[in-house]
Every structure is written in C-alpha cells, then in structure tokens.
Amino acid sequence: MRKIYVAGHRGMVGGAILRRLEARKAAGEALELVTRTHAELDLTDQAAVRGFMETERPDVVILAAAKVGGIHANNTYPADFIYENLMIECNVIHQAFAAGVKQLLQLGSSCIYPKEAPQPMREDALLTGTLEPTNEPYAIAKIAGIKLCESYNRQHGVDYRSVMPTNLYGPGDNFHPENSHVLPALIRRFHEAVRDGLDEVVIWGTGKPRREFLHVDDMAEASLFVLDLPRAEYEANTQPMLSHINVGSGEDISIAELAALVAKVTGFNGRITQDASKPDGAMRKLMDVTRLANMGWRARIGLEEGIRETYQWFLENQNSVRR
Ligand SMILES: NC(=O)C1=CN([C@@H]2O[C@H](COP(=O)(O)OP(=O)(O)OC[C@H]3O[C@@H](n4cnc5c(N)ncnc54)[C@H](OP(=O)(O)O)[C@@H]3O)[C@@H](O)[C@H]2O)C=CC1
Ligand SMILES: C[C@H]1O[C@H](OP(=O)(O)OP(=O)(O)OC[C@H]2O[C@@H](n3cnc4c(=O)[nH]c(N)nc43)[C@H](O)[C@@H]2O)[C@@H](O)[C@@H](O)C1=O
C-alpha cells in the first residue's frame, strides 16, 4: 500500500492529480490517498505541517498547493506571492523529510527562467539571467523550491523531484476577472460579452506576447509519469544539480491569436481591442520539452479542443467557479 498526500487537492492541478489517482485506486492499485483543505491545514504554519506529517507519515508527497495567479495578481501582491510560496515549500519539503518521506514531487513554473532566455527554454537556462519583473517574487520562491529538493537529495539521499509546468488551464481553473490567468479570464469575458450583447471585448497588453498552454489533465498525467519513473531513469535525465523537468505542449500562440480562438469557441463576433496600459509580461515563454519527450511523455489535448471542453465546464459550473 502506497500512502500519497496530495497538497492542494482543491486547486486546478491538485484536483486533476487526485482524480487520476482515485481512478487508479478504483482500478485496483494499492493506494491510500490523504488530503487536507486549506482550512484544515494551513501549509504556511510550520507547527501544523510538522504535526500533520508526524501523524500521517505518507510514503509520497505531491506538492500542488501554492499561492497562484496571473500577471495582475503577481504584480499587485508580490509580498503574498513570495512569502506564502516560500513558507509552503519550506514547511512541506522539510517536514516531509523530517517525517521520513522518501519521495516527493513539487510543481514549479516556467517563470523560473530568465526573461530573455533563448526560446524554447531548456532546463539549463535556470539562473542564467534576469527574471521577468511582473512575477520575480513568485519565480524566486519557485526557484527556491527546486533548490530545496536538490539540496535534500544531495545531503540526505531522498528522492524529491520537480516539474516545471508551462501556462495551464482547464476544469477547476480560477475565473476571477483580475486575478486569474489569461485563458480563464478571456473565456469569462467573451462569454459575458455574448450574454450581454456587447460588440467589443478588451484584452490586456499589446496582444503580441506568446504563451504555451497545456491542459491540466495532460499536466496531471505528466506529473504522475515523472513521479513513477524509476529513480535511476529520473536521475539519468536530470543530473544531480539539474533536478527539474519542463512540462509543456511544445507549441505557443500569441495572445491576439488566443483571443480570436476564445471568441470563436464562445461565439463572439464583435471587435477585439487592446488595453496597452496593462503589462505584457514576458514576450515569449515556450518550454523545450525534449527531456520529457525522450523519457516517453508528450501532451495529447489540442488547444482548441481543450478550450472547448473548459468552456463547457465553465458553463456547467458558473455558479461555483472561483471568480
Ligand atoms: N495555473 C497555472 O497556469 C500554473 C500553475 N503552476 C503551479 O501548479 C501548482 C498548482 O497550481 P493551480 O492548481 O493552478 O493553483 P490553484 O490556485 O488552482 O490551487 C492551489 C491550491 O493550493 C491551496 N493553497 C494555497 N495556499 C495554501 C496554504 N497556505 N495552505 C494550504 N493550501 C493552500 C489553495 O487552496 P485555497 O484556494 O483554499 O487557498 C488551492 O487549493 C502551483 O504550484 C502553481 O505554481 C505552474 C505553472 C502554471
Ligand atoms: C503561469 C504564469 O502566469 C503569470 O504570467 P503570464 O504568463 O504573464 O500570465 P497571464 O496568464 O496572466 O498573462 C499572459 C498574457 O496574457 C495577457 N492578457 C490579455 N488579457 C488578459 C486578461 O484578461 N487576464 C490576464 N491575466 N492576462 C491577460 C497578459 O497581459 C500577458 O501578456 C505569472 O505571473 C506566473 O504566475 C506564471 O508562472
């Protein structure tokens, strides 16, 4: 029996990972799944996390809990983003180690790479240049998470792995008008424009930045794929000082093209205009996913198909989505 604690199971990614693990359990795999809501266990509380780990003593920890948001939220609440994420990582990773957890998987983000990193961004671009200012505090916390895992592996011989997702979207996303990421924000804005008979939708920035999007079900599958790799295979592909793996679709699209796609899916036929007073952020963030592809994993869900499915989910869950 393998006891797995999924931290952040009510979030978009943690929820998708939990659904996948529950399906495996239902299919007969010997799994015990442990979860706590934010209200039950605040992961920024060191003593509470220590008590939880000592009591539950999971075999495996999946860290999908974090303070998460789009460009505006990162830019507006930098103290929350660096403080909460550093505390969550330090508490979960250290207290897991102290309670004897041998295997852990944590999620970082593509924003760990320098603003001007060569595209597509390889894992070894880490710490080679200046970060994008709109999310530097969050990125610093995520880099600290990678270094925590590397350091515990080096000093204590544990097996703590890190995956770096590109921009994610899907069922369970945050549709808040200001604090969400671009894709849920546009799904909601275009939907409301159609509903209210508006003839114009405004998108933030110039529309020129390019982003790579990955459906959360692909991300959940990739996370468990990396977790389940034999240790020798994981380490052969990461080297001791380079312990993280990019996860993406390998394709990017401009924000203007993305807006046109969301307009098509939601049935909006009016004008799309830009608010250049809003930040663009990084001009391009495309992951090099060669390492993961060489290990045998690639994304399956196409962007238009994924947006259609997410829009359907939004329509069915409008009254309960985060907004
Ligand atoms: N969404 C994206 O585009 C991307 C996400 N990632 C990473 O993937 C991971 C998951 O993100 P995602 O699922 O999108 O985010 P969500 O915001 O959907 O989920 C995060 C979860 O963490 C929980 N949480 C936050 N703070 C605490 C805390 N102090 N104690 C306990 N629980 C807490 C939240 O609970 P509550 O809501 O109650 O606060 C929520 O359930 C994160 O590490 C994120 O950085 C990386 C790249 C892109
Ligand atoms: C995953 C990643 O997410 C964040 O970085 P980001 O990639 O810049 O994220 P974003 O989704 O918020 O924006 C992408 C682009 O889209 C444009 N854009 C247009 N219109 C809207 C809009 O309505 N909302 C938002 N949010 N963006 C919009 C926006 O101006 C930008 O050019 C990081 O802070 C960090 O958290 C991180 O790791």
Automatic annotation (TrEMBL):
Pfam families: Epimerase (PF01370). The active site is at Y138. It catalyses: GDP-beta-L-fucose + NADP(+) = GDP-4-dehydro-alpha-D-rhamnose + NADPH + H(+). Pathway: Nucleotide-sugar biosynthesis; GDP-L-fucose biosynthesis via de novo pathway; GDP-L-fucose from GDP-alpha-D-mannose: step 2/2. The record marks S109, C111 as: Important for catalytic activity. Substrate binds at R189, W204, R211, D280. Residues 4-234 form the NAD-dependent epimerase/dehydratase domain. GO terms for biological process: 'de novo' GDP-L-fucose biosynthetic process. Catalyzes the two-step NADP-dependent conversion of GDP-4-dehydro-6-deoxy-D-mannose to GDP-fucose, involving an epimerase and a reductase reaction. This is GDP-L-fucose synthase. It comes from Ruegeria intermedia.
